[in-house]
Write a structure and sequence with these properties.
165 residues, globular, 5-stranded parallel sheet, single chain, 52% helix, 8 helices, alpha/beta, Rossmann fold
């Protein structure tokens, strides 16, 4: 059975990154490498929340970013997801602005995703938040997804190959 990976907004954004700072270019290359060569080893999902974030404003390659997710199934925002968001905000797991960070985590948690793939290292893939996220999800009876960046998943894939898994 393939691991289920929730694709958050920053993944298509970095796939089509046009900024020239070395760290941004590196993140773009890691994102493209994972998407182009590793994603088929996973069961990808996303949500309307991701598509709405990508649709806001006017930014370069906006249509391409949205199109990247064209064939990725959308997880529904249910009453249960909204209830989880409310707990995350009350327990200060996620900030209320933007609420989309809490929604992404709630969607991935509620729908039992194994991994939430993101470049949002401030609110999501943040080592300082992991224990808090696991604690609150445990109180809710939910498994917390692994919060990872594309380069981290490629490292995991490489280590699995070396172990023969």
């Amino acid at each position: 059975m393939l691991k289920r990976v929730y694709i958050e907004t920053t993944i298509p954004s970095y796939y089509y990154n046009q900024r020239s700072e070395p760290e941004m270019v590196a993140m773009m290359h890691w994102t493209r490498d994972w998407w182009d060569h590793h994603r088929l080893a996973y069961d990808l999902v996303t949500s309307a929340v991701t598509l709405q974030e990508l649709s806001r404003g006017d930014h370069p390659l906006q249509a391409e970013k949205i199109a990247l997710l064209r064939n990725v199934p959308l997880l529904p925002v249910t009453d249960e997801v909204e209830g989880i968001v409310a707990v995350y905000l009350a327990r200060k797991v996620m900030p209320s602005k933007p609420i989309t960070d809490a929604l992404h985590l709630a969607l991935a948690s509620c729908h039992a995703c194994d991994i939430l793939l993101t470049w949002n290292c401030l609110h999501l893939a943040n080592a300082n938040k992991i224990v808090h996220i696991h604690h609150v999800n445990a109180l809710l009876g939910l498994k917390a997804p692994v919060l990872a960046t594309p380069n981290q998943l490629m490292e995991e894939d490489h280590e699995s190959d070396e172990r023969g898994n």
